[in-house]
Amino acid sequence: MDSHTGSATASPPFDLVVRGGTVVSHDRAVRTDLGIRDGRVAAVGAGLGGGLRELDATGLVVLPGLVDVHVHLREPGMTRKEDFASGTRAAAAGGVTTVVDMPNTLPPVETTAGFAEKLALVTPKAHVDFGLYGMLGKTNADEIAGLATAGAMGLKLFMGQTTGDNPCPDDGAIFTGLRAATAAGLVVGVHAENDALLRRLSAELRAAGRTDPRAHLEGRPAVVEVEAVTRISTLASVAGTQLHIHHLSTAAGLDRVRLLRSLGHRVTVEVLVAHLLLDDTAYDRYGNLVKLNPPIRPADDVAALWRGIAAGDVDIIATDHAPHTAEEQAETDVWHAHGGFIGVETMLPLLLTEVHRGRLSLPDLVRLCCHTPARTWRLDDRKGHLGVGADADLVLVDPAAPGEIDPHRLHSKHPVTPYAGWPTVGAVRATYLRGELVAKDGQAVGAPRGRHLAPAPATATPAPSTPATATPALAPATPAGSMA
Ligand SMILES: [Zn+2]
Q: What is its EC number (predicted)?
């Protein structure tokens, strides 16, 4: 590092200078330049010195690469649906530069050896940086310390049935696993649905002859989520575990989280793009394509999630990118249909459209999709912001560009999406990973150069970030040449 007192002319040239864009952090948007050296942000400020490459970002918005903490890229074992190459190309094209991949593969990632095999398998195919979850399973508590040492990003706990049909651990196994996760310093992310309840209610509907898409929603009413959220928060608090609730979907679930927080429970909450953009009228329009666990909900729940975002009660937005084959997505009997659909590539254009509509600010988007995800999984020394020292994961966005979700341009193996034909405002022009171009105008470019990410060592359990208390991640505009 050069002397902090030197001017820009005393510094070696930057590898890349991005000039004149509006750089967005979780709490502000500032028109400034970014100087990139060795894949990292080396300087932030107006009028920076020269770069070997220069990029004019006038009129564009510069975001930190999105961190999608909930994707299923289906390797190993389900590559007919998606694989790490296709899924991470989709991520790059959509402005997502870090993904956290879920462990409900074939086989599921339950052991240290299985983790190492998956890591070796997927690393050469990764077009963006990635973390890998291990499973908090029925019988693998003895493996959890090893999973942490191997670099697992966290542990996924399926309390309710979903793709892969992995057996859900009982409360005893959950508690043992939570204690092991605490000792290992791993975040536990939970799919919070009460398995016995959803199976019972769904069986009743099935016995009554129902096969229509809406029966899936009726078999998983809000109580399925509320009970599971309450139980897991209770157990995790006693076990001292850092808990993250994936895809919270109901007004009642969010109310319960508020109550639990008021009692001192610390938990981060994620909602999905799909739960924000679709309501139960989607069953009539899209059929079983929008079958999702937890289900797409009535409009009142959707409105409550948006209010939760505005109030700062929701910490993170993710996709639950969950590909299936086109044939699987065409299944007409709801009980045979698969849960989930793709989303990693359409997340940012769809959320930018919500920014355009005034439902979200750009700093909100960065807080929910970059800053808090990186902070929660202890990646925030390098990810989730564009302060000096951060990885130069940049997304250049034209905020006013009209467009349309076009499945033919998507990179997933089976680009079947309910958003086909949806109009958008805001386009991803380019994505950079550690200073190198990985996508341009919706097309992934270049060889895979993604790296495996592990969380930084745990210190104290971080509190969930809120707009009021979060630490600024982006240095304010500084004079030319400042390296501080
Ligand atoms: Zn999922």
A: 3.5.2.5
pLDDT per residue as tens digits for the range 201-242: 999 999 999 999 999 999 999 999 999 999 999 999 999 999
Task: Give dist(CA 292, CA 421) in Å, integer.
Answer: 21
Total domains in the fold of the chain: 1
- Ligand 1 centroid–CA 445 distance in Å is 27
Query: Is residue 240 a part of any domain in this protein?
Result: yes
Based on C-alpha coordinates, what's the Rg of the chain? 22
Q: Give the residue among 108, 33, 127 at the shortest CA–CA distance from 446.
A: 127
- Tell me, in angstroms, the distance from the centre of ligand 1 to residue 120's CA: 22
Ligand 1 centre distance from Cα of residue 155 (Å) = 13
Distance 71 CA to ligand 1 centre (A): 6
Angle in degrees, 0-180, between the axes of helices 251-262 and 222-239, rounded to the nearest 10: 20
Residue 395: the pLDDT is: 98
Residue 263 Cα to ligand 1 midpoint, Å, equals: 28
Evaluate whether residue 59 is within a structural domain: no
Cα 278 to middle of ligand 1, angstroms: 17
Q: In the numeric block, which tokens belong to residue 37?
A: 């050296």
Q: Tell me the CA–centroid distance for residue 387 and ligand 1, in Å.
A: 31
Ligand 1 mean position, distance from CA 420 (Å): 21
Which domain range does residue 197 map to? 65-376
In a domain, 114, yes or no: yes
Domain of residue 73, CATH code:
3.20.20.140
CA of 342 to the centre of ligand 1 (A): 11
Distance 366 CA to ligand 1 centre (A): 21
Q: What is the mean pLDDT of each run of 10 residues along the chain (484 residues)?
A: 42 90 97 98 95 96 98 97 98 98 96 98 98 96 98 96 79 97 98 96 97 97 98 98 98 98 97 98 97 97 98 98 96 96 98 98 98 98 97 98 98 98 98 98 97 88 43 36 32
Residue 229 lies in a domain: yes
Would you call 407 exposed, middle or buried from its count of C-beta atoms within 10 A (0-12, 13-18, 19+)? middle
What pLDDT, on the 0 to 100 scale, is given for residue 7? Answer: 45
Q: If you measure from the C-alpha of residue 38 to the centroid of ligand 1, how many angstroms do you get, rounded to a whole number? A: 34
Sorted by sequence, the CB contacts under 8 Å of residue 111 that are 6+ apart come out as: 140, 143, 146, 147
Buried residues in 160-196 as b, exposed as e (16+ CB within 10 A): bbbbbebebbeeebbbbbbbbbbebbbbbbbbbbbbe
- Ligand 1 centroid to Cα of residue 67, in Å, is 15
Give tens-digit pLDDT for 53-90: 999 999 999 999 999 999 999 999 999 999 999 999 99
Q: How many angstroms separate the CA atoms of 270 and 247, rounded?
A: 5
